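WARN retry 2 of 3 for item q-0093 after timeout on previous attempt; input resubmitted unchanged.
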Amino acid sequence: MVTWKNSKQVGDWLLLANVLVWVVLLNVLASFYFFRVDLTDEKRYTIQPQTRALLQSLKDDVFVEVFLEGTDLNPEFKRLQKTIRETLDEFRIYSRNKVKFTFTDPLQANNQRARNEFITDLNARGVSPRNVIETRNGERVEKFVFPGALVSYQGFETGVMLLRGNRAQSINQSIEEIEFELANAIHKLSNTNRKRVGLVRGHGELDSLVFASFNNALLEQYDVFEVTLSRKKTVTGYDLLVVAKPTRAFSEADKYKLDQYIMNGGSVLFLLDRLDADMNRASEEDYLAFPYDLNLEDLLFKYGVRINPDLIQDRVSGRYPIVVGGDRNQPQIMQLEWPFFPLANQYAQHPITRNLDATLFRFASSMDSVKATGITKTPLVLSSVYARKITAPVKVTVNDLRRQMRDETFTNGPIAMGYLLEGKFSSLYKNRFAPEGVTTEGFREESLPTKLVVIADGDLARNDVNPRDGNPQPLGLDPFTQYTFANQDFLLNTVAYMLDENGLIKARNKEVKVRPLDKVKIKNERSYWQAINLILPVVLLIGFGIGKAYWRRVKYSRF
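OK item q-0093 returned
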């Protein structure tokens, strides 16, 4: 007789009940301990700790409207779209559903007029269309795509572009930058603890019109002030100072205040021209560029770098239009490479310059690293290998564009044009008398840990001005080719790193590896791998069926 206690059916029910209890218990525990597992080699789905902290600190909902949508996107843009969606989904999870997003196709408006108005409005808000030309089924197909998004928070919004540079070369770079671009846009809107940036004035620096683009970009994230050193006893209350292309000498008193600002842990971005080279005078046949006397050479030398009194010529350069023929009424104009405008595309492996497009320099000088104990020096940006240095005085004339330049003379590259300096700096005024008229109270001989960036080109931050309406143009925009170089991205990344090296800038270190198939190997071994994938599974299935039938026959033949 089978009793209730030893009933197999009862035991099965108890086992099921135990399993259900454990499943419920594990789900309850999992609700208190949130975690996610990324099994990819490069951790492509892992959100950086700095981004997580930002998302978890949100006090209100963030709305993200992505415009990369449509049924006829090519595979590259579909891959970019998929990554944007996955990243935003991770943002939603880590923000506890405070990040909400949607995908919209701007080309699905009711009529052409509404579509054009929508596109114009998007462009004004920072989301620009990209014209994509492809060949499909032997036909040329042209269409607009919108690889950008609008991010809104507490009544404010900002546009963010999620495609970098030229599409064919930059989809993977754009994918690596998606987390940083979206997180940085959210940070701009939600940050209430804004850093203070001071623009040094009083030495002939860039005026407000030609500095407007970079200045406006700074104002989106930081509080920006003008700082006149001669009017201050000490320079305090600023997280970063920007010295943008001074043309007049710093007094010893101003230099002392700058030195002591650095000694107290302040960071400085130096954008300096070593030679007085000006395109407005380049049409003069006898124009020579001579060195500026800025009175900063000994200060920089003490900190570990030297800007040389020369100009760099590079065969990889920007272009400049000159008249090559025709008559007065119909001149023939050509854009020729102007070697004094190096196109820098060689960078250090650093979060500031990772995945950066080419940067346009104008009349840059070479830089050397000199001994400075305890200072870490990183050459951030360099010329191409096809470059040379011309020592001052340098003849600068556009007439040279008509002459054939010999490649064998451009053999000095790559040449450093910018350095990042990090560490504890020694004061220039250590074991020296302080200048007259300055306060020496609280004088420091050695700095707190800080960072300096020295770029040997003041024009890196100078935007052009539209001659028709007098408005400033975007920084890095070449008015002749209408291509926008990465000057502003480079400077903003530099400022972000100097103000918070462990902040969102760390998200720029993300790497997404591309693992393309070996096309030669595929061609040579195509039949072999087709047999493996098509025939082997069938053989294994047939073998399994025969084996199972034989096993059953042997098993039941014993009875």
